[in-house]
C-alpha cells in the first residue's frame, strides 16, 4: 500500500443543491431575452415580474424584489460597455468567445459588485448560485473565478485600469467610463458642443433612471388636482406636468386610468406646447399630427385644440399604432379624427392645415435613459435608413400646411444628421418656408441653444433630448 493511499482522505464535500433566487433568475431571463430575441427590457420585464409573483406568491416576491430585479436588469444593460471592458480584463480570451449566457451572468455579477451597494461576498455568492442554476456547476466555477478578480477593485479602480486616458483619446475614454458606444459619444458631443464637463454631465444623465412625468390633459385634468391627490411635485417647465415621487406608479393614478392624464416626458409636452403657441395668421381650426403613434403628443394637441375650437387629424402609418392613438385620444372633449396613412403619400389635400406636427421616426438617441439596451442596438447606418424618410415627411408637412401656417419638425434624437441637416436640406428647396424662433415659445426654459430651433437635454432640462424646428410657410 503506498504512503499516499494510507493517508486519510479528505471527505468529499456533500453535494449541495444550488439555491434558487427568483430575483436573479428573473434578471438573467430578461437579459437573455434582450440578447437573444432583441427584446426590449421595458416590454419583457412586466410579464416576467407578473410570472414571478404568481409562482413565488406575493410574500416571497414583493415590491422590493420587483424593484431590485428591475434595477439589476436596467443597470446591467446601461453599464454594459463599462462592464464588458472590466470582464475582458479578467478573462484570458476575447469576450466574443465567452458564451453569451455566461457573459450575462458575469455582467449581472459585475453590476452587483461595481454598481450597487450589495456587499461583495453576497454579490459573488448570489452570482455563483445563479450560475449553478442556469449554467451548471462547471461554468459556475469560471464565474466564481472571474468575479473574485473583479471584486479586487471598485468601479473607479477599474476605470483607471481599463479606460484609455482622456488626454490620449477623449471619446474612447468617455465611451468606457460612461458606457456609451464611441460613435454615440461623438454624435452627442457634436450636437451639444462645448468642453468635457457638458458631455460628461450628459452621458451621466443618460445613465440615470428618469422620473415618471405625467401630463394633465387640458380641459380634462389639472396639474393641481394631480398634485393634491398624489405624492408628486410640479413639472419644471410645462404647466401641465407633474413628476411622481420615487416609486410612484402611474397605474395608481385615477386620472391616468381614465385617460384624463397620461405618462409623458416634459420634453414631449414642450414640443406640443411650442407648436400650439406659435403665432399663425388668420384661421386656426385645423391641426395635423402626421406621425402620431402611439399618441402622446396627439393627445395633448387634441386637448389644446379642443380649448380653441380646433380639430386634430392624427395620422399614423402603422395600423396597430393608429389604434394606440385612438385609445390615447378617446374622451377628448373636442372633435378629432385618427387615420392610418403613410405620411409620404398623404390622403389629405395640400394646404389644408393651420398647424402641423411631424414627429418623425428617428434613432431615439435622445431617449437613452428610457431604453437601456437601445444604445447598443443602434448602428450609424440607421441614420442613412431614416434620412430619406425624415426628409420626405418634412416635405409632406410643408405641403400640408396653408400659407401662414406653422410646421413643427421634431425628433427624440439630438443627432445633427436627423435634426438640423434634415431641416436645412429641405428648406434649401423650399424658398416659400422659413424657420421661426422657437425659443420665445418656451418661456422660462433656459439653455435652448442659439436658435432658431431648440434642443432640449437630459442634463440641462431633465427631459429627453427632444429637438424642435418651427417653420412657417410664407408663400
Ligand atoms: C417618433 S414616433 C411619434 C411619437 C408620437 N408623436 C408621440 O408623441 O406619441 C414616429 C411615428 O411615426 C410612424 N411612422 C413611420 N413611418 C411613417 C410614415 N411614412 N408615415 C406616417 N407615420 C410614420 C411610426 O410608426 C411612429 O409611430
UniProtKB/TrEMBL annotation:
Span list, region Disordered: 1-20
Active site positions, chain numbering: 412 (nucleophile)
Residues that, per the record, bind S-adenosyl-L-methionine: 291-297, 316, 342, 359
Keyword Transferase attributed: yes
GO biological process per UniProt: regulation of DNA-templated transcription; RNA methylation
SUPFAM superfamilies: NusB-like, S-adenosyl-L-methionine-dependent methyltransferases
Origin superkingdom: Bacteria
InterPro entries the record matches: MeTrfase_RsmB-F_NOP2_cat, MeTrfase_RsmB-F_NOP2_dom, NusB-like_sf, NusB_RsmB_TIM44, RCMT, RsmB/NOL1/NOP2-like_CS, SAM-dependent_MTases_sf
Record keywords: Methyltransferase, RNA-binding, S-adenosyl-L-methionine, Transferase
Record Gene3D superfamilies: NusB-like (1.10.940.10), Vaccinia Virus protein VP39 (3.40.50.150)
GO molecular function, one term: RNA binding
Stored PANTHER family: NOP2 YEAST -RELATED NOL1/NOP2/FMU SUN DOMAIN-CONTAINING, RIBOSOMAL RNA SMALL SUBUNIT METHYLTRANSFERASE B-RELATED
UniProt family annotation: Belongs to the class I-like SAM-binding methyltransferase superfamily. RsmB/NOP family.
Name of the protein described by the UniProt record: rRNA cytosine-C5-methyltransferase
Organism: Streptomyces filipinensis
